[in-house]
Write a structure and sequence with these properties.
Elements: E1 3-8, H1 13-24, E2 31-37, E3 43-49, H2 52-59, E4 68-74, E5 89-90, E6 96-104, H3 107-116, H4 126-141, H5 145-154, E7 158-166, E8 172-178, E9 183-186, E10 191-194, E11 206-209, E12 214-219, E13 225-228, E14 233-234, E15 239-240, H6 256-262, H7 264-272, E16 276-277, E17 282-283, H8 292-297, E18 300-305, H9 307-324, E19 328-332, H10 333-336, E20 347-353, H11 359-370, E21 374-379, H12 385-389, E22 392-395, H13 408-428, H14 433-454, H15 457-467, E23 472-477, H16 482-496, E24 499-504, E25 521-526, H17 532-544, E26 548-554, H18 559-563, E27 566-570, H19 578-596
Parallel strand pairs: 18-19, 18-20, 20-21, 21-22, 23-24, 23-25, 25-26, 26-27
Antiparallel strand pairs: 1-4, 1-10, 2-3, 2-4, 5-6, 6-7, 7-8, 8-12, 9-10, 9-11, 11-15, 12-13, 13-14, 16-17
Helix pairs in contact: 3-4, 4-5, 7-13, 7-14, 9-13, 9-16, 13-14, 14-19, 15-19, 16-19
Bound molecules: fructose -6-phosphate.
Fructose -6-phosphate binds next to helix 9 and helix 16.
Length: 614
């Protein structure tokens, strides 16, 4: 949550900051702001409630010159979204400005102390308190900015990725991080700092990921210096970025979400590449090789995740239990971390996170590690905090996901989880060789089947049109399709603001059936499989109460077609692999409904892509 970007070098900072903020806007869009120091030494700060585009209009006729600057896009935590609470924030003297992503938990106590010493605050933010503290320390102890930041951060409880700019020292910026991500790009004679690599990749591929409790002192034309909070000098570890520029641009699509839905044949393939070899009857998962024995012997698997990633974990529960005959528990990371969960040393804990930065999931990982479990990560963002905090795991290789609503990350997660479940089934001897091979071939065919489903886009747009004014929607599925129902409902509610619920189809009669009337759209996953007849009965129950049924069915289905208002035919596959295909039409439906309702599909209200607060 919140995106930060900064630049120091010889180029004009403002265009770099603005472009960077636009790319980071998925992290929050309550307000945006920039600060630059111009050639005369003036510090110009501009900030505005609303999106980056509003900031751009606001600064149109203002002085934006300068070769050093910082920028911020906000997801509000402390203080409502308004101009005053926007970042950057000033220190008491107004000589320092700071941008911050994270939460300073003990800000109220610090603020009280500073107020007693005569500090006055303009905003309700925790960030303003921290920059006042930094200046207070700097002035009272007569120390340099880097040391003042270190000293202030020792007093802080919470999370931060921050950058400080000093009007009186325009050749230096100081950055620090704990719990929130920060990457520093090293150009030929300049530096770029950002929450992720997207604002950096077009300038340099050489980057340093700052670790927790590290402070970077970045001086124009000099080498990057990093120290920890104990003042120990750290040698920067320079890595090469592998992301390409086109992967973070819309590439002709109206929205990132649509582009990402259409990327799924490719992203699913990329998530299987080098891992699945159907001809050889092999699944190779590099990141879990060292834990093979644990997989063989594990008594239990615990999945921890949030949101869509939690839905992927629910799919995995069915797959691991079916293929590997291992008991599985799926936990919301936010609940798990605040319980006193029973964790055994021979448990395998798997954390799933697209961003790899979700605060609750990261904290749950630390908790599981502290109890001695083997903790693996399934992350999309390479080098992210969860990927680094876990003992091993696998990247999903979906490529950057920028639309706030997760689409291709979900199918990539389910792909990797399926491969893991198959692999575990093989090493535990719980899958026969022929079933194992049959599933590998089915997996190999998934990308082309997704391709087929994408061809239904026009039909899905038509169905979306009939439901665009609905106030509620119900999604039903059984077995492995139940999590797909949850995911379909989440997609609709988060981008179109239509209230939607996902339910196991059989649970409908225990309550939700009371909601059904001719106004209620009901989306049912009714593909062929062990539960098919049961789902058909559930559809009849809905129809008997005049509900409007749209069913996702297996190509050629006749029975459901005869009773549903609309059917969406998807190619046949093994019933345990259905989620990978059945979720696609639900994503497209939600997308079209949201567009027709005039919603901001890529940046739904109140949401952010990377939830780095609890
Ligand atoms: C929904 C969505 C969120 C995320 C959740 C976890 O479309 O994107 O529910 O799935 O915030 O995020 P990650 O996977 O980054 O941990």
């Amino acid at each position: 949550m919140c995106g930060i970007v900064a630049y120091i070098g010889k180029r004009e900072a403002y265009p770099i900051l603005i472009k960077g903020l636009s790319r980071l806007e998925y992290r929050g869009y309550d307000s945006a702001g920039v600060a630059m120091i111009d050639k005369k030494g003036d510090l110009n700060v501009y900030k505005r409630k609303g999106k980056v585009s509003e900031l751009i209009s606001f600064v149109k006729d203002k002085d934006t010159t300068g070769n050093v600057g910082i920028g911020h896009t906000r997801w509000a935590t402390h203080g409502e979204p308004n101009d005053v609470n926007s970042h950057p924030h000033y220190s008491q003297s107004k000589n320092l400005v700071m941008i911050h992503n994270g939460i300073i938990e003990n800000y109220a106590t610090i603020k009280e102390g500073l107020t007693k010493r005569g500090h006055t605050f303009l905003s309700q933010t925790d960030t303003e308190v921290l920059i006042h503290l930094i200046e207070d320390i700097q002035q009272h102890e007569g120390i340099k900015m880097g040391h003042a930041v270190q000293a202030a951060l020792k007093q802080v409880i919470g999370a931060y990725a921050l950058v400080v700019l000093d009007k009186n020292d325009p050749d230096t910026i100081v950055a620090a991080k704990k719990g929130s991500p920060m990457v520093i790009g090293i150009g030929s004679d300049d530096f770029f700092i950002a929450s992720d690599a997207s604002p950096i990749i077009e300038y340099t591929k050489n980057v340093v990921y700052l670790d927790d409790e590290q402070v970077a002192i970045i001086r124009r034309g000099q080498e990057l210096k990093i120290r920890n909070l104990k003042d120990k000098e750290i040698t920067p570890y320079v890595q090469k970025l592998t992301v390409e520029l086109e992967s973070i641009e819309k590439g002709g699509y109206d929205h990132f979400m649509l582009k990402e839905i259409y990327e799924q044949p490719r992203s699913v393939l990329d998530s299987m590449r080098g891992r699945l070899q159907a001809d050889l009857g092999e699944v190779r998962m590099g990141g879990i090789v060292d834990h093979e024995k644990k997989f063989e012997k594990a008594k239990r698997i615990l999945f921890i995740a949030c949101g869509t990633s939690w839905h992927a974990a629910l799919v995995a529960e069915y797959l691991f239990e079916e293929f590997a005959r291992v008991p599985v528990e799926v936990e919301y990371a936010s609940e798990f971390r605040y319980r006193n969960p029973v964790i055994y040393e021979d448990d395998i804990v798997i954390a799933i996170s697209q961003s790899g930065e979700t605060a609750d999931t990261l904290a749950a990982v630390e908790l599981a590690k502290s109890r001695g479990a083997t903790v693996l990560g399934i992350c999309n963002v390479v080098g992210s905090s969860i990927a680094r905090a876990t003992h091993g795991g696998s990247y999903t290789h979906a490529g950057p996901e920028i639309g706030v609503a997760s689409t291709k990350a979900f199918t990539a997660q389910v792909t990797v989880l399926t491969l893991m479940a198959l692999h575990m089934g093989k090493v535990r001897g719980t899958l026969t060789e022929s079933r194992f091979r049959q599933l590998l071939y089915e997996m190999e065919a998934i990308p082309s089947k997704i391709e087929e489903v994408l061809k239904l886009n026009d039909k899905l747009r038509e169905i979306a049109y009939t439901y665009k004014d609905s106030r509620n929607a119900l999604y039903l599925g059984r077995g492995v399709s139940f999590p797909v129902a949850l995911e379909g409902a989440l997609k609709l509610k988060e981008i179109s603001y239509i209230h939607a619920e996902g339910y196991p189809a059989a649970e409908m009669k225990h309550g939700p059936i009371a909601l059904i009337d001719e106004e209620m759209p009901v989306f049912v996953i009714a593909t062929k499989g062990a539960n098919y007849e049961k789902v058909v009965s559930n559809i009849q129950e809905v129809k008997a109460r005049k509900g409007k049924v749209t069913a996702v069915v297996t190509s050629g289905d006749k029975e459901v077609k005869a009773m549903a208002d609309y059917v969406i035919e998807i190619p046949e596959t093994d019933e345990f692999l259905v989620p990978l295909i059945a979720v696609i039409p639900l994503q497209l439906l939600s997308y079209h409904v949201a567009v027709m309702r005039g919603c901001n599909v890529d940046q739904p209200r109140n949401l952010a892509k990377s939830v780095t607060v609890e």
